[in-house]
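Example 338, ligand AFP.
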Amino acid sequence: MKPVSLIQFLIEERRAGRINAELSLLIEVVARACKRIAVATNKGALGGVLGEAGTGNIQGEAQKKLDVISNEILLEANAWGGHLAACASEEMEDPQPIPDMYPKGNHLLMFDPLDGSSNIDVNISVGTIFSVLRCPDGVVEPRAEHFLQPGTTQLAAGYVVYGPATVLVLTFGHGTHEFTLDREVGSFTLSRRDIRIPDETAEFAINMSNQRHWEAPMQRYIGELLAGKEGPRGKDFNMRWVASMVADVHRIVTRGGVFYYPLDAKIKDKGGKLRIMYEANPMAFIIEQAGGAATTGRQRILELQPTGLHQRVPVFLGSKKEIEVATHYHVEADGAQG
Ligand code: AFP
C-alpha cells in the first residue's frame, strides 16, 4: 500500500468534513514544531541541551533546558500562522496571546512541551502532549477562563513520543491514528489507522513507591493485581513504569494496558499529580477514541469542568474493563462511607 503522509491524511479529513482548513494548518504547524523538538532531543549531550535551565515553572518544578527550548519552539511556530487565538503551556502561568502584528484564528492550543523531562538526561523517551479547543465566540483576547472547557469539547488532541522512533498519535474525535516520522524524508507517515486498545489486559503502570500513601480502594485494587493467579483476579499481572506519561500511554496504545496516577496523601491538597488541561484531557480523548476508558477513579475525565489552567487530577486510563474495575472499587468505597 502507498504510504499516506500526515498532510495527505489532513487533506482527506478536510474533504470528509471532519476538520476545517484552520485546524488542519494548526496540526501541520504543531507537527513541524515537534520535528524540531525531536532534532533537539536526538542531539543529546552533543547539542548542549541536557541539564537544568536554572529556572522554575509555574508548578514550582525545576525546568530542564529542553523544557524551555521545546516551549519556545512551539510558541514561535504557532505565533504567525493565523490559526490561533492564544496558547497555554505547562511552562507558563498565563496564556500567551498572539502578537498584534499577526492575524488571529479561532483556536486555543494547550501543550506540555516536554513531558517526562526528568528522563531526558538518562536518554529515556520523552514527549509533547497537546490539546485544541475552539475559542469562545466573540472573545478577542482569550484569558485563562476561556480555556476552562470540559475535555468533551476538544477538537483535537495528540502526543509525540521522542523514542527510538518519533511517533505522533492524533485524534479529531473520529478514531485514533498513529504517524511515524520518516527521518530521511522528513515527514510523518501514517503507520496505524483506527487504533483499538484491547478491553482486557494483564499489564499495569503505576509508581509503586507511593503505595503506602494511596487511598484504601487503590490499595485493595493493586493488592489484588499483585496477588496474581492465587488472588481474587485469578491471573498474573505484569508491571511497567517509564515515568514519562507519553511513553507509558504509547505502550497502552500499542498493546493495551492500564496507567494510574491516583490521589495519594502526599498530593491530596494539589488534587493529583497530572494536569487536566494539557495531560489528562488530551490523553483521555486519545484513549477513548481508541476504545479505552479514562477516569479520575470516580468520574469520566472528559466530563470534568476544569477550574484552573494548571489544575491537577488523578488519572486512570487504558483498557476499558480494567479501568472499570479500579473505578468501581473507588465509587463503591465512597458509597460505603456514605
Ligand atoms: P516530569 O515532566 O517532571 O518528568 O514529570 C513527568 C510526569 O508528569 C508524567 O509524565 C509521569 O507519568 C509522571 O510525572 C511521573 O511521576 P513520578 O516521578 O511521580 O513517577
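Summary: Residues 21-43 form the longest helix (23 residues).
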